[in-house]
Amino acid sequence: MNGYLRSIKQIDVTKRTILVLGAGSDIAKAVARQYAANGFSVQLAGRSLDKLNRLRCDLHVRYGTEVSCHFLDISDLESHDLFVNSFSGTPDVVLYAAGAMSEQCEAINNWSLAYDMITVNYMGAVSLLNRFALKMGVKGSGTIIGISSVAGERGRGSNYLYGSTKAAFSTYCSGLRHDFYKKGVHVITVKPGFVYTKMTQHLSLPPLLTATPELVARSVYIGAERKRNVIYIKPIWKIIMLIIKALPEPLFKRTSL
Amino acid sequence: MIKKKLANWGNFPVLEAEDFSFSSTSNLRTTLEEEMRSFIARGNGRCYGDASLGDCTLNCLSYDHILSFDCEEGVFECESGVTLDTILKVIVPKGWFLPVTPGTKFITIGGAVASDVHGKNHHVDGSFCDHVMEFDIMMSNGSIVTCSPSIMPELFEATRGGMGLTGVILRVKFRLKRIETSFIRQIQIKAKNLQDLLEKFHEYRNHTYTMSWIDCLKSGKDFGRSILMAGEHAMIDELSESQKKRPLEAYSDTLLRFPVYLPKFALNWYSVKAFNFAYYQKNFKHVIKNVIPYDPFFYPLDKILDWNKGYGHSGFLQYQFVLPLESSAQGMKDILDRISKRGMGSFLAVFKIFGKQNNLISFPMEGCTLALDFPIRNGLFAFLDELDKIVLDYGGRIYLTKDARMKPEIFWKSYPRATEFKALLKKFNPDFKFRSLQSDRLGITNNEWIFEINKANRCD
What we know:
The complex is a heterodimer.
Chain A: H1 2-15, E1 17-21, H2 26-37, E2 41-46, H3 49-63, E3 67-71, H4 80-85, E4 93-96, H5 104-107, H6 111-139, E5 142-147, H7 160-180, E6 185-191, E7 194-195, E8 210-211, H8 213-225, E9 230-232, H9 236-246, H10 249-252
Parallel strand pairs in A: 1-2, 1-4, 2-3, 4-5, 5-6, 6-9, 7-8
Helix pairs in contact in A: 2-3, 2-8, 6-7
Chain B: E1 4-6, E2 15-21, H1 25-34, E3 40-42, E4 56-59, E5 66-70, E6 75-79, H2 84-91, E7 96-97, H3 109-114, H4 122-125, E8 132-138, E9 144-147, H5 153-159, E10 168-175, E11 177-178, E12 183-191, H6 194-203, E13 209-214, E14 226-233, H7 241-244, E15 256-257, H8 269-281, E16 287-293, H9 294-298, E17 304-305, E18 316-324, H10 325-342, E19 349-354, E20 367-375, H11 380-393, E21 397-398, H12 408-414, H13 418-428, H14 437-441, H15 448-459
Parallel strand pairs in B: 2-4, 3-4, 15-17
Antiparallel strand pairs in B: 1-2, 5-6, 6-10, 7-11, 8-9, 8-10, 12-14, 12-16, 13-14, 13-19, 18-20, 18-21, 19-20
């Protein structure tokens, strides 16, 4: 009997699947490795098939993981329907790791950069996650992980175009969580703070406030398994953002944050 | 792009640099094409000196995919940013080991090729690139070239130990070594003095792994007292019962972190003396034999993350040289004598034997090598310049991977094929698109030095 139960459990574990949307990012790579190390099979979706293939080899050699690669252009919203329907089953976990960030000073003068951030960080996310949430709702289980940002907690002069897209995404995640809770679908919002990635390589980041993609991946995995709602990677960010949010507007607008 | 403070393991020199990361070859090509400047590839920053520093560095750490692992044949293929630590976790459980490993597992595979690293088994297995089957490298014009000892042999030769000056190493395919267990059967033998040590090395020359630690502050009859460590990969029947339950365990990381930079006064003659005394006396018995996991045998210092902070903010220099076989005994005695007389103690002095090797620009040659750590303080640079001359007189040379201060004339005189190396660089890296603080300091990647060398050669 015991042996029978154990074998059922093993099958369940190996059957679990994570779909990574925007698998070319550094955070996505780390999260994919974390889940693969924990016995998940992995579906990678992104624009650069070369990158996905390299990650596929990596996951396969490291963890013996079953990996499939899928072409996905997040900003091509029309293609999403076909993309979502190309999956026969519904993944147990969907990670939205795509993100675009341009310098505020450039993006405010160049609509295409701002548009790109809005599409990738918000519209694309809503378009895809709506569809997966509905599928998970029908199935009655599933986890959606949204990589948002602390930048979305208050608009600041230095990066409010990026910040506002993340604010919209955080709000979307919180609503989705509320809506789908009763249908057995869990949504976790991740607010990493600074992370050493390609997106931030041109910035000089303070080490105490900055996480590695691997730390993000570990926290995401644990957070998702424990069904946490909103997680910060470095706890200090929670305090920093509390202070930033607490500043009264007349004072706040005079600061240079 | 904002400049960041970068330093390698010795924390000297510290440089403000722009650090470009890349995760695909097209990324890298764009960076090389868009920026009309020079670059140097950089891995995990474990070389000690300035070899992977420059105004613009190419950070390979995100280029870190494992591409294939044939566990029947023992062939491994990965991108240059993968660290040995990662590789060990994958290969050890399948019964394979690195063919050659340096004293830290936190180096990248790109760095292993660029430094042509050696290990405790050099006298048996040679250096790392002896086991490399092929690699891909991005040249200054953005093209990717595959080379091996038989395809593009000149480029292969100039890249092994070439300190990243031929291009950016992208992918490396190499052979692994079969192991039955992940444990090492180790023997530690105390040697009374230098002469005794050399004899013991001769006695244990058939062991795959040998190295020794020397107390470099001892003078008189105990001069050169040391502990020789010899090891072999253990067979399954040599393990204890508890070890037999996990014969191919990859070492899990339970790490300590060195918390702060120690103040300058913490390392002085007395503390170094006390440490060396304790290190020698910790071995009660004259000979100790045991079977231990591979990790403490190969990587004793990796257990303490950031141990370089022990040398304080001003950093330290690691000084590693090799002397040819015939002058080794005399030369080592001469150099250790000077160190002991000056009281320039080194916490760890590591002594090893090299087997035959004669590559274009790789460091090893048949003979003996000694690595010393010196905290940076007044008088050290002048003292090392003095040692350089002695090393040169004995026909030896300095390891570029550890070097942060050698004078160019020493380099050009001690590496016999340096001019040939430079000629190849002019071919493969014509505009010196790839150059480092070190290559500029040594006059490898600036033209002024050619004249100086020619002059020097004529004078000779």
